[in-house]
């Protein structure tokens, strides 16, 4: 028995909630360091605050994956998790830039870090079931297209989220200036808009997408799959550790690629704002509140929007076709090389306008990072374990971020003398290492083999 082939718009609607998730995620990625610095964090402390994000992923995603595999009711299998995650993330989005209203109870920096934790936990609650849904609903020959469409929506959402503070100031006159210790109005309003879009986009997926029942998925299972057999009914949360020990070979091989890819991404997200403000704008390291610093922060939002827009275009119009011609592995390796060159080249850019060019290259890598590993992985996972294995796979996304969070700040402070631009160069080198490791991965159902 074979799954029904879905139309483009069915796949689009199935993934549409990712537009809002990534809009909120992009607002966080582009502005969390800036907000935390406004509330008093030093540059070398930023990675320690950001450790909240991967820790939430490490804890939340496998658990959510396990329970979403076991959930089935009138609201479906994955859908309840989308909605709960979206509501909680919206709360964090609204309150993080307004953390200073709680200063009578706790320091604004603590509240801001707490809201960052809530957002990350909630994004993880929503994100993992979305990836599992693609594996649940799509046939092998549609998975690359499915993850690519998902990546394009991630890109479009991230463009809107990253650029929104700049757009509100540039075209709607919302001020981006502020007094020390307070977040500019354009940021606060952007986070509120992001929360509203997040809820709305999730509802589109909820009302337009049908899920296969567990009984239907069982009929699609390939008995030759090298993942753990499902002949035994598994229902305990501790089974996550058993599943981890028996993960497919392809997942083990991809783990090293993911480690160096996400080590590099974390460094980029945490240190781009201080790197651009100091290295490109020429501001002193201790400046976190001047008008020039706010301008630099807004421009980082535009730069992040650029790489996300490029990723959306590449994922939607190019990745599936390139992968069909040269294979998923070669596509991913080439994309990572392009992104690594982009990150390293930021060091050599003469002004802020030129930094757009490296961001275009980074966008190519980001498109592939969000699509190719999951398309490769999905072919090695049994359908009944799609959720939990997608969650376990997230270990190899969050562990490198935790490592970077622990060592990135001290490296910037003591090895790079506080100059965050070298953290971006390090991220570029990490991408190049990941590209080399792709050759070790076995893609068990590469679409080139089925052409």
UniProtKB/TrEMBL annotation:
It comes from the Bacteria. It is found in: Membrane. The keyword 4Fe-4S does not apply. The keyword Transmembrane helix applies. Pfam families: MFS_1. Keywords: Membrane, Transmembrane, Transmembrane helix, Transport. This is MFS transporter. The lineage of its organism: Bacteria, Pseudomonadati, Bacteroidota, Flavobacteriia, Flavobacteriales.
């Amino acid at each position: 028995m074979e799954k029904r082939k879905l139309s483009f718009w069915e796949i689009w609607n199935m993934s549409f909630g990712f537009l809002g998730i990534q809009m909120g995620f992009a607002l966080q990625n582009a502005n969390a360091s800036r907000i935390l610095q406004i509330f008093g964090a030093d540059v070398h402390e930023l990675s320690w605050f950001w450790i909240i994000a991967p820790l939430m992923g490490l804890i939340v995603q496998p658990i959510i994956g396990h329970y979403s595999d076991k959930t089935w009711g009138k609201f479906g299998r994955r859908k309840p998790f989308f909605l709960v995650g979206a509501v909680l993330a919206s709360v964090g989005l609204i309150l993080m830039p307004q953390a200073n209203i709680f200063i009578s109870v706790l320091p604004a920096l603590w509240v801001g870090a707490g809201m960052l934790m809530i957002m990350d936990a909630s994004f993880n609650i929503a994100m993992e079931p979305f990836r599992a849904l693609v594996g649940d609903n799509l046939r092998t020959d549609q998975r690359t297209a499915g993850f690519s469409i998902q990546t394009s929506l991630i890109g479009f959402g991230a463009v809107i989220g990253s650029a929104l503070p700049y757009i509100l100031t540039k075209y709607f006159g919302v001020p981006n200036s502020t007094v020390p210790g307070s977040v500019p109005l354009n940021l606060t309003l952007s986070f509120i808009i992001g929360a509203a879009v997040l809820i709305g986009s999730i509802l589109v997926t909820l009302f337009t997408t049908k899920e296969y029942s567990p009984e239907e998925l069982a009929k699609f299972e390939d008995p030759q799959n090298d993942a753990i057999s499902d002949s035994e009914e598994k229902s305990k949360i501790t089974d996550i550790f058993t599943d981890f020990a028996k993960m497919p070979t392809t997942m083990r091989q991809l783990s090293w690629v993911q480690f160096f890819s996400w080590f590099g991404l974390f460094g980029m997200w945490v240190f781009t704002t201080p790197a651009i403000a100091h290295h490109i704008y020429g501001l002193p390291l201790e400046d976190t509140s001047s008008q020039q610093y706010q301008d630099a922060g807004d421009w980082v939002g535009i730069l992040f929007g650029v790489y996300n827009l490029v990723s959306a275009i590449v994922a939607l119009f190019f990745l599936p076709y390139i992968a069909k011609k040269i294979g998923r592995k070669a596509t991913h390796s080439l994309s990572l090389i392009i992104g690594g060159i982009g990150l390293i080249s930021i060091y050599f850019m003469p002004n802020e306008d030129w930094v757009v060019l490296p961001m275009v290259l980074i966008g190519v890598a980001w498109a592939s990072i969000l699509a190719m590993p999951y398309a490769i992985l999905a072919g090695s996972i049994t359908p009944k374990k799609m959720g939990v294995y997608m969650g376990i796979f997230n270990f190899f996304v969050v562990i490198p971020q935790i490592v970077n969070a622990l060592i990135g700040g001290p490296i910037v402070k003591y090895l790079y003398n506080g100059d965050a631009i070298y953290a971006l160069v390090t991220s570029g080198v990490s991408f190049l290492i990941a590209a080399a490791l792709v050759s070790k991965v076995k893609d068990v159902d590469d679409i080139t083999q089925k052409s």
